Amino acid sequence: MTTRRKASMPLLDESGSTLQSRQVRKRDPAQPSLPFDPMPERIEPCLALLKPTPPKGADWLFEVKWDGYRLALHIHRKDVKVITRGGHDWTHRFPAIVDAARALGVNSAILDGEAVVLDNQGRSDFGALQRSLGGRGGKKASDEAILYAFDLLYLDGHDLTGTELSVRRHLLEDLISPTSDGAVRLSQEMALDGEVLLEHACRAGLEGIIAKHRDRPYRSGRTGDWQKIKCIQSESFMVVGYEQSSSARGGIGSLLLAARKGYDWAYVGSVGTGFNTKDAEYLRKTLDKLKTARPVVPLKGKNLVFAQPTIIAEIEFRGWTHDGSLRHASYKGLREIQDNAAVFDIAERPAPSE
C-alpha cells in the first residue's frame, strides 16, 4: 500500500494563483566525462549566513527555508546512511527517507538536505518533527519525516563539490522529480525576486528563505555563499541553568541561555515562555541532574540554578538588545545532543537593534 504524504504549502501571488518553481532543465548528454573520485565518508556542510535582507541580482537563486534537521544522505548501491550535521549516524531514525533514497535508482550519491515534518497546511513544523522522534533523548524512528534535498555533492563516482551550484542543481533536478511526493523531495528553486519571495513566505507563516550564489562551489562552513533571511528568528542555544520560581509551572521561572563564543560561552538572556507544565517538569528534572556550582557564564543570583552545558533548546526571538540579549524569546523545543553543531555562535549576531 502506497503512503500518501502531505504536500508542502503552496505560495500564492496577489491573484491567488500558485507561484511556480523554475522550469527543470534536462541533463545535457554531451557533457564531458569526469575522472573517478573516491566517495568521501563525510563532507562538512555549507552553512547559511544570517542576513537582514535578501541579496539582489541574477547571480542568486532562492528557496524556502525548512525548519527541521540538516542531514546528508550517503547512497552506495543499496546501502544508505543518514548523517547529521554534526557527523552522527541517524540512519535508524528515518526509515522512510532511507527507503526513498534506495528507490532513486542511483549507484552512489551524497545529497544535502533538511528532514522535516509538515503540518496540515504544508509548513515544516519543528515541534512535530521532535515528537515524531520521541522527543529529546527519544528512541523512536520517524515514519512521518521527509527530506527536502537542496544540493548534490557526489554522483556516481564524481565529486561535485568543486563545481558551481548551477551544475549541482541541474544534476539534482535530473535525479529527483519536482513533482515527487515521496519521502525524498526536491527543494525547489523559486523563480522570484528575493524580496518578493520573502514577503510571500512570511505571509504564509514560513520561517524564511535561503539565498545561494549560483556560481560558487560547495564550501564547508559559513562563507556567505549561502544566506538565510528569516521572517521570525529561531536559533539553537545551550541551556546553562534556570531561575527557580515557586509560582511558575514546574518550578521553573525561566531558562538561562548561552551561545558559543570561540571555545567558551556567552550569556544571551533567558526565556520564560513557550513551555508547558510537562516541559517545565522534564527540564527541571534533567537540569537538576546536571547541576554545577561553577556557572559557565558570569551570573549570580540566589534563585539561579546552574547546569553543565549539555541541553540544547531551539528558541524563537524577535531580535537582539544593545547588551546582547535575546528580545521576546520563546521556547520551541529541545534538540538532540548529537545536534550540538547547530548551537548559535555569538560571532553571527548582527549589530544591536535600535
From TrEMBL:
The Swiss-Prot or TrEMBL record annotates one GO molecular function as: ATP binding
- What reaction does this enzyme carry out catalytically? ATP + (deoxyribonucleotide)n-3'-hydroxyl + 5'-phospho-(deoxyribonucleotide)m = (deoxyribonucleotide)n+m + AMP + diphosphate
SUPFAM superfamilies named among the record's database cross-references? DNA ligase/mRNA capping enzyme, catalytic domain (SSF56091), Nucleic acid-binding proteins (SSF50249)
Q: Where is this region: Disordered?
A: 1-38
Keywords (A to Z) from UniProt: Ligase, Plasmid
Keyword GTP-binding among record annotations: no
| Database matches in Pfam families | DNA_ligase_A_C, DNA_ligase_A_M
Enzyme Commission code(s) on record: 6.5.1.1
Q: Which GO terms describe its biological process?
A: DNA recombination; DNA repair
Q: Tell me which family the UniProt entry assigns to this protein.
A: Belongs to the ATP-dependent DNA ligase family.
Q: What is this protein called?
A: DNA ligase (ATP)
